[in-house]
Amino acid sequence: MRKRYFSIIAILLFALVFSLALAACEQNENGGADIAVTKITLDLKNARTTYFSGEVPSADGALVTAEYSDGTTKLLFPNECEVSVTENASSGTATVKVTYQGKSASYVVSLVKVKGLSLDTSNVKKVFALDENFVYDGLKVYAEYEGGAERVEVSEKEYTIEYPSTATYGEHIVTVRHGGKSTWYPIRVLSVNVNSVDLLTENGRLKIKIDGNFGGYYGGNLAVDVESTENWQRSFPASEYTIDDAWNFTVKADVSEIALSAKPYFFHVAHDDKYYDIPTSVITEKSVEFGGATYTLSLKKVFDNNENLFPVLIAGGEESAKGEVSVAGISVASSANKAILTVTGTYLGGYKASDFKLRSEQYNVWQKTYFDDVSVTLDSGTYTLTVDVTALSKENGGKHYFHISFDGGENWIDIADIVGFTASAATVGGKTYSINQEIIWSSGAKTCILTVAGE
């Protein structure tokens, strides 16, 4: 009986000790019943101390530290504290008060009223392609404040910008907000829609003609680029375009000078620094004979690992051999108060306008003149060269004869012995320009001579 009595007492003592220990642990986990917050301190190094009209001050960025009666400290999270703001309208300030477990600390922030905003968008991109990423690099925002400088540049972190999606074309508004005020600037989203493509000859030149429509338009240059699938070089043939009030456009590109090639050319509509593909649905195959070669607008498989068809220009297939060239006539006439020399003839094969060159040489003086401004027209095996010869000298007899080149200036031949030659003359500025065939060499060849005489 006695033994059982002592066992019961031992169990009760153990339970009491365990309960006291558990209570002590719980007290320790809660900071201890006798440990209290003595004060809190604020580190404002990263806190905002200036707010603009329309903004609500907060303690964001402030670091709060609690100090305890046992000498320890604790860095607090913002959501552990109570924050209140009291505005002082007369002084243009507000007091931000932070409270934690009955202890408080406060600091003063400035409240600045914004009178108005202005923008400098001179270096800002304002034209975007459909679905292009919006950017506002180069934007400058200026604010006027009450009681302060009239025009102050606003840093990017102090304003917000609201911009539209570029998924729809047309004009859109970009809104800039700061200090309860807002302003805006316009952008345009451009969509190039190609409706038709044609290959044609015009004024003796071979051209690609593209008709389409802009879904919104904001200046810039319109052209056609031609890209070789052999070396992937882009070229930009001389282009001309028109745009009407409904944003319909027509652009023509002179492709007379592109090299004949066994591989086709891609082509695109180029607007500023953007290139727009030609849809396959607008391509109807068409072939045109030009300069002794065949040019074809078509759809073609270009890549071995891609079964898709692409709109292409095929320039002559295998390069056409250059055949015989002859001079059929030479004449002079007055036009717009200038003496204009015209040379005509025929050719066979794949010649280009750049193959034809012309120069003159003055008899007895042997002064050569190379004409850089020769206009060359090629049309179905015939060529026409025109050049201004008004400046040729009348001194030392004023006799000039001509050489022509069909290989870009590598080799030259005399213009002479023209069958069916007809003399011609023109008077410009008191001077007379006349062309005749004369024998001036011992070979007996009848050389075409332009004689300049008069005042």
Give the number of DSSP strands.
36
Quote the CATH topology of the largest domain.
Immunoglobulin-like
Query: What's the overall geometry?
Result: elongated
Alpha-beta content class: mainly beta
Ranges with pLDDT <50 over ≥5 residues? 20-32
Q: Helix amount, in percent?
A: under 10%
Task: Please give the domain count.
Answer: 4
Fraction in beta strands: over 45%
| Average pLDDT | 85
Major sheet details: 7 strands, antiparallel
Spatial separation of the terminal alpha carbons: 158 Å
Q: Would you identify the CATH architecture of the largest domain?
A: Sandwich
CATH class of the largest domain: Mainly Beta
Structural write-up:
The protein has four domains: 37-112, Immunoglobulin-like (Sandwich), CATH 2.60.40; 114-190, Sandwich (Immunoglobulin-like), CATH 2.60.40.3630; 196-315, Immunoglobulin-like; 325-454, Immunoglobulin-like (Sandwich). The chain has one helix and 36 strands. By secondary structure, it is mainly beta. It starts with a helix and ends with a strand. Strands 28, 29, 32, 33, 34, 35 and 36 form a seven-stranded antiparallel β-sheet that branches. It has one helix at residues 2-29; strands spanning 37-43, 50-52, 63-68, 73-76, 82-88, 93-100, 103-112, 114-120, 127-129, 140-145, 152-154, 160-162, 170-178, 181-190, 192-202, 205-214, 222-228, 234-235, 239-243, 248-254, 265-271, 274-276, 286-290, 293-301, 309-315, 325-335, 338-347, 357-362, 368-370, 375-379, 382-388, 399-405, 413-414, 424-428, 431-439, 446-454.
